[in-house]
Design goal:
Helix content is 23%, strand content 26%. The chain has 955 residues and is an alpha/beta fold.
């Protein structure tokens, strides 16, 4: 019930019951998948998996801001009733309000009122149309039965409702209208409808009793007869909304399957439509919440949740949200979150009781919880006891010995038993879903330092990550080590289900390559024969020699007339203009004064060195300048756009200094219409061989801001903060190799400063790394392309069609993946390969390092299944050095668009007997590894400038 007459108040007639079908509703037009969500914060990332998402327009959601090209956003609107909190309620003439629906605290509107259609279009539809809604779900079409008690009265109400619907379509012919019931008026307005919805085919909600109900067979038969009429006579899709308790996925799945078996599109959700339900598809939650307690003065960038937990979760396919114990902890439900990770070194000191109460609620809702490096509470906590952990009494004395150890323990460093931080708890042997990962004995106490449990799992300190604080204080490289294998532990503890994982490292079978340069040292002179400014040397020796797509930035305070070197500006600005004008260069800002400590750029920022009056030593010493974030970001961007690159605007801001940008700064980049990147500290090398030195994709910060991290770090850290050796950047090759095997964690990124052009040794190292990447199977693209992939990754929806499972089993049909089209790669580690022949949006596949396959996409809308082996001989792309878009197959003909930045080519499999044309001209491929390779010209804008390829096979 969405706010009208309860199901069953319209008694089905004897004649109607006589027409009830014996079986399923006969097939009609293919129905779109539809979801309904009336919560205050619609989960756009999940709802985009559906073809249609119906939302409450007063939730604040703005469809104009949603990057969801495959989803139509419909606004919920009530026709027969109005709630007093609607903005237009007080403007409705009181004479038009002829009754009440007390169960929903709503007033019934007289549909026969002469001015009602015009009022409804002007005051209800028009504001929503102006906000970007192009579809409307018309609810309470049967509420007039509450006030109309005679045939004539009902006829007048129905005629008025017809006029309302006709008025909507007359003003907005393109509007798509979903009706909630409205069976009586369908003979007159069925041609204006996009589909028909009803509620409670099997499971309902009784608002007055506040209870979920089973629908009677009589009511169900009547609805099925109406569904038959709608499908067979009016040829309209039919959708049923049913209701189960929130979080009861068994009920939701079983009910959805029963509805679907009758040929009706299902959506099963909670009574208030506040959570993600199960429809024709089930969306997998791709968020994990990390709860931690950062120390005062420590920014979130340096927190253990970011440094340790985020990267493994990202690799497994999960976006990470953060919560601090000092703040209110968010609502976490199983429909939105795959799990919670608690990172605790010792006991939480802030709001410990509140944290435990919150955690008990989360666990009771079925959300898996993983504790890492501790519980954040004493072993004697009632919560741990309720979670099945037994406190072990006795004396904890050294030495500590290992009783048993799972293979996932001792990953990067052997387990070194230590009683210092021992937590004397033990799991119950043989309990369902429970097993010890590390059992230790100290003195008279035998305890489990790590375990998988029925509610998740835990690893106590220091057996998640052993942190070597003494080393960190004296080195730019942390020497921390994973003791537990984090991928295996998190996958099992959080009970993560197999899914095709959105992946930012690869496209069309090739690892990505990006290049970006921070502007530092652009004004420095080169210490090599011939001299010259570093920018000149880099252009001559590197940029124009390799001509790979790259992102170049400058610091206005170094180059511009208002900066540190006004007398050099006349020489420096022409160099910058020449570089920016190159077709392979995209333009970026490195701010105005290059802040070194971003925590000091805003009042109350996280920085151990606080700003004091007159202290401006945390940025370049520009005469007379005081820190101004607007000048740093918007001002520097405006300078570059006006003075240095008027024909090619800035696309990116590259964070300088410690790169720990505050939310205020990130919001200014968004306001300026540019992307942002840098930070993260991926520093894994052979001398620091640990996954703790691999950064995540980025970090969510306050005010719904997100900072994208650089793929790896620059030459500064490989040269001991530019103290030498100056050839040290060649060691970045180690980083690339160690983020390729055993798993491809990262794309390849050549990232350095302008001052790399000042030393003979640093130039030599640059040539070495550039020459190296040209020997690898890489796909070069701009940094903005990569950043857009990361942003798409954050919100990409992964769902599965319902399939034919039983007894509440998860969905088991084809996979559905939706995004904005920038991320075009998935990683699958399950059995089989994608069935390209039956898929949509899938261009091919290739092996993935570490096992499994990459699934190649052509955009942001794919549907596919997996088969044991690739036996269907249809053309597909195992590899392409460029962007593939608009892949479509029509019988024996396959068409797609293709282009690339640098030496583009594509390889076709299963096309030996096919003819190929490119832009209408016959093309002959070169046979290569049982495929045909086709080389095409490079373009500077492969997204908008593409060649059209046609592959015709057979007769």
């Amino acid at each position: 019930m969405l706010g009208g007459v309860a199901l069953g108040t319209l008694a089905p007639s004897t004649e109607a019951l006589a027409q009830v079908p014996q079986g399923a509703v006969q097939p009609g037009p293919a129905a779109p998948s539809v979801a309904f969500h009336y919560g205050a914060k619609p989960p756009v990332d999940q709802l985009q998996a559906f073809d249609i998402a119906v939302v409450e327009p007063d939730s604040g959601f703005d469809p104009r801001t949603a990057k969801t090209p495959s989803t139509a956003w419909f606004a919920y609107i009530s026709v027969g009733e109005v709630l007093p909190n609607r903005s237009y309620f007080n403007d409705i003439p009181k004479a038009w309000l002829t009754g009440s629906n007390d169960a929903w605290n709503a007033r019934v509107v007289d549909q026969s009122a002469e001015g009602w259609p015009a009022f409804y279009v002007d005051r209800v539809i028009k504001p929503l149309w102006d906000r970007g809604y192009r579809g409307f779900f018309l609810d309470t079409l049967d509420s007039y039965h509450l006030v109309a008690k005679t045939d004539d009265a009902r006829a007048a109400q129905e005629a008025g409702m017809v006029r309302v619907i006709q008025a909507i379509k007359a003003r907005y012919p393109e509007a798509k209208l979903l009706f909630n019931r409205g069976f009586e008026i369908l003979p007159k307005v069925n041609t204006l409808a996009y589909g028909v919805v009803f509620e409670s085919l099997f499971r309902g909600w009784n608002q007055s009793q506040g209870a979920y109900t089973e629908v009677s067979q009589q009511d169900r038969d009547w609805l099925l007869n109406q569904a038959r009429i709608v499908r067979e006579q009016y040829r309209l899709p039919v959708i049923s909304i049913d209701y189960c308790p929130p979080g009861d996925r068994v009920c939701q799945r079983d009910t959805a399957r029963r509805i679907r078996a009758l040929g009706i599109t299902p959506y099963v959700t909670d009574s208030g439509l506040q959570t993600m339900g199960v429809g024709a598809i089930e969306v997998m939650p791709r968020r994990v919440l990390v709860v931690q307690e950062s120390q005062p003065g420590v920014s979130i960038d340096n927190s253990e949740g970011v440094r340790f937990a985020s990267m493994p979760l990202n690799y497994l396919g999960y976006r990470v949200d953060f919560a601090e114990t000092r703040d209110e902890l968010p609502d976490v439900t199983a429909d939105r979150y795959a799990g919670v990770v608690v990172w605790a070194n010792g006991y939480f000191q802030r709001n410990a009781g509140r944290f435990q109460t919150w955690l008990e609620k989360v666990s009771a809702q079925g959300v898996p919880v993983a504790f890492m490096n501790g519980f954040g509470m004493p072993a004697s906590s009632p919560l741990l006891r309720n979670m099945g952990l037994q406190t072990v009494k006795g004396r904890l004395t050294s030495p500590v010995r290992i009783v048993s150890q799972d293979k996932m323990m001792g990953f990067e460093q052997p387990v070194a038993p230590d009683a210092t931080d021992a937590v004397a708890v033990q799991v119950q042997d043989g309990a369902p879903g429970t097993r010890s990962l590390l059992r230790l004995r100290a003195g008279t106490v035998t305890y489990d330092a790590a375990a998988i449990t029925r509610w998740g799992g835990y690893v106590t300190g220091p057996y998640a990550v052993r942190q070597n604080y003494a080393i960190r204080q004296n080195s730019s490289s942390d020497q921390d080590r994973w003791i537990v294998q984090p991928l295996d532990f998190l996958r099992e503890a959080l009970r993560l289900q197999p899914m095709p994982v959105p992946d930012t490292t690869t496209e069309s079978g090739r690892r990505l390559l990006t290049i970006h340069i921070d502007g530092d040292g652009f004004a420095s002179k080169a210490e090599i024969p011939g001299g010259g400014f570093s920018g000149e040397v880099l252009f001559r020796e590197i940029f124009d020699r390799y001509r790979l797509p790259m992102t170049m930035s400058v610091i206005e305070g170094e180059v511009g007339k208002s900066g540190m070197y006004p007398k050099l500006s006349a020489e420096l600005e022409p160099i910058a203009r020449k570089i920016f004008a190159q077709p392979y260069v995209e333009v970026a800002s490195h701010t105005y004064s290059h802040p070194f400590e971003w925590g000091r750029t805003v009042p109350g920022g996280n920085s151990e060195a606080r700003v004091t009056e007159g202290d401006e030593e945390f940025h370049l010493a520009i005469p007379g300048y005081k820190m101004d974030l607007n000048r740093e970001i918007g001002g520097s961007i405006d300078y570059i756009n006006r003075v240095l690159s008027p024909n090619k605007p800035v696309k990116m801001l590259l964070w300088p200094g410690d790169c720990q940008a505050p939310p205020e700064a990130i919001k200014l980049t968004d306001a300026a219409g540019v992307l942002n990147m840098n930070g993260g500290d991926t520093l894994i090398t052979r001398s620091n061989p640990t996954w703790t030195a691999i950064a995540p994709l980025g970090i969510h910060k306050a005010d719904n801001t997100f900072q994208v991290f650089a793929t790896n770090q620059n030459e500064n850290v490989y040269t001991n903060l530019w103290r030498g050796p100056y050839y040290g950047f060649e060691r970045v090759i180690e980083t690339w190799e160690m983020t390729e095997k055993p798993y491809r964690f990262k794309a390849v990124n050549i990232y350095y400063h302008s001052y790399a052009g000042t030393k003979a040794a640093s130039l030599k190292s640059l040539r070495k790394v550039y020459d190296y990447v040209l020997t690898q199977n890489l796909l070069p693209m701009h940094s903005t392309d990569y950043v857009l992939k990361v942003l798409d990754w954050q919100s990409m929806a992964v769902a599965r069609e319902l399939g034919d499972g039983a007894n509440g089993a998860p969905a088991s049909g084809a996979w559905v993946v939706r995004g904005d089209g920038n991320l075009r790669n998935l990683r699958w580690t399950g059995a089989g390969v994608p069935d390209v022949a039956t898929a949509t949006g899938v261009t091919g596949w290739s092996p993935a390092p570490g096992g499994g396959v990459y699934v190649h996409l052509d955009g942001g809308n794919a549907r596919f299944g997996f088969v044991p082996t690739d036996t269907r001989a249809v053309p597909e792309l195992p590899e392409a050095n460029g962007l593939v878009r608009n892949w479509r197959r029509d019988g024996n003909t396959t068409r797609f668009a293709f282009s690339g930045y640098y030496k583009p080519f594509f390889r076709l499999a299963n096309a030996g007997q096919c003819s190929v044309t490119i832009d209408g001209k016959p093309a002959r491929g070169v046979r290569e590894n049982n495929t045909l390779r086709f080389d095409t010209p490079a373009v500077n804008d492969p997204i908008n400038v593409q060649q059209q390829v046609e592959v015709r096979c057979g007769a």
